[in-house]
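Minutes, project check-in
Item: structure for the 230-residue chain
Input as provided by the requester:
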Amino acid sequence: MPVLDLVVFDIAGTIIQDTGQVINAFATAFREHAIRVTEAEIRTLHGASKREVFKRYIERQFGPEDPENTARIDRAYADFRSILETTYTTKGVQAIPGVESTFRWLRDRGIKIALNSGFYRKVTEIILRAVGWHDGQVDPVICGDEVPRGRPAPYMIFRAMEATGAADVRRVMVVGDTPLDLMAGANAGVRGVVGVLSGSHGIEGLGRVEHTHIISSVAELPGLLESSFP
């Protein structure tokens, strides 16, 4: 029997190349709606549930009790979605090199594969269809707006476990490219919390949060499992 039952992967920056699409969409929507957010703050948003991001910064700027906040959030989030969907549809999507061979390695050993993301369902489907992963290539896909709270809360991980029948967090691994990904894995108490350096954060950013391993990309995951999870 394999030592793991399930590996839960983030999407953008972890298994899909991140060329700044999300940050550009955030920056444009913030600017168009006069929401004050610094460039440094924008860089921390990878991995977060997207609507929650707009709620956080709009409430900071206008106060949490402002009656116009819901409308402000709706307008800014709608524009963000439109920008992001257009970008992924027109400019295409590329998988991280080695991810498909890693998926095959896991499936050959009976280890289930789940995806989770701060993206909402529509843009997630656009991405997965673009790389041909929309029809049975992975097990469940859990989106940030489908759980009560996004990362760093562990709920997407638990939803993936529920969907795959994985009952023991000690037989689950989480893989992601952002501190929020790793924080969610740590909060879930899973056996493996693996950071990858293929996305928006380097070794310093990932190294500051709780993790078990950091590797260059998902292409190195089979080797890690063979050497560290016998």
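Outcome recorded: The mean pLDDT is 92.
No further action items on this chain.
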